[in-house]
Amino acid sequence: MKCPFCGHGETQVVETRESDDGDLVRRRRRCGGCEQRFTTYERAEVAMPSVVKKDGSRTDFDRSKLQASMRLALRKRPVGIEQVEAALDRIERTLLSSGIKEMPTAKLGELVMRELKNLDKVAYVRFASVYRSFEDVDEFSRLIQDI
């Protein structure tokens, strides 16, 4: 870490403290050149993959969009907000652990359908009927028979 006062390349960590919620580390440092003290902060940087739409355009991952579509499918169903949040957390963990830079909407939709299938079968069918764009009634019937 370079000293912000003199630009010296070597500094010493004098004190380290973690924030209450544990997502931030505060470090007090002392410059080896000018002896000035300064504070630095460290935070883990987590990058969600970009979402590749059907038309090839790319957009940033947006948890609120997933949440809105899941809530729409779960409308008037006996599923609590905590369960939806837990499902969204699992989807995000899956995306982060995959280590990929881009995720097609088709694969993201499959993750959502897997979670909805575990939460509520009716919500799963609602979401799948819109997401998969069934061409005829037979395809829709097969989906229902599968569950």
* Number of DSSP-assigned strands: 6
Q: Radius of gyration from the CA trace?
A: 23 Å
Q: How would you classify the helix and strand content by structural class?
A: alpha+beta
User: Percent of residues in helical segments?
Assistant: 40-55%
Distance between the termini: 57 Å
Total of helices? 5
Q: Would you give an account of this structure?
A:
With 147 residues, this protein is α+β, with helices and mostly antiparallel strands. It folds into 2 domains: 32 residues; 97 residues. Helix content is 44%, strand content 20%. The chain has 5 helices and 6 strands. The strands form 2 sheets. The protein has a 3-stranded antiparallel beta sheet with strand order 1-2-3, with no helix packed on it. A 3-stranded mixed beta sheet has the order 5-4-6. Helix 1 packs across helix 2 and helix 1 crosses helix 4.
Topology:
Layout: E1 11-18, E2 25-31, E3 37-42, E4 50-52, E5 58-59, H1 63-73, H2 81-98, E6 102-104, H3 105-119, H4 121-131, H5 137-146
Parallel strand pairs: 4-6
Antiparallel strand pairs: 1-2, 2-3, 4-5
Helix pairs in contact: 1-2, 1-4, 2-3, 3-4
Summarize the structure.
This protein has 147 residues and is an alpha+beta fold. It has helices spanning 63-73, 81-98, 105-119, 121-131, 137-146; strands spanning 11-18, 25-31, 37-42, 50-52, 58-59, 102-104. β1 (11-18) and β2 form a beta hairpin.
Keyphrases for this structure?
3-stranded antiparallel β-sheet; elongated; 147 residues; 6 strands; 2 domains; alpha+beta; 5 helices; 3-stranded mixed β-sheet
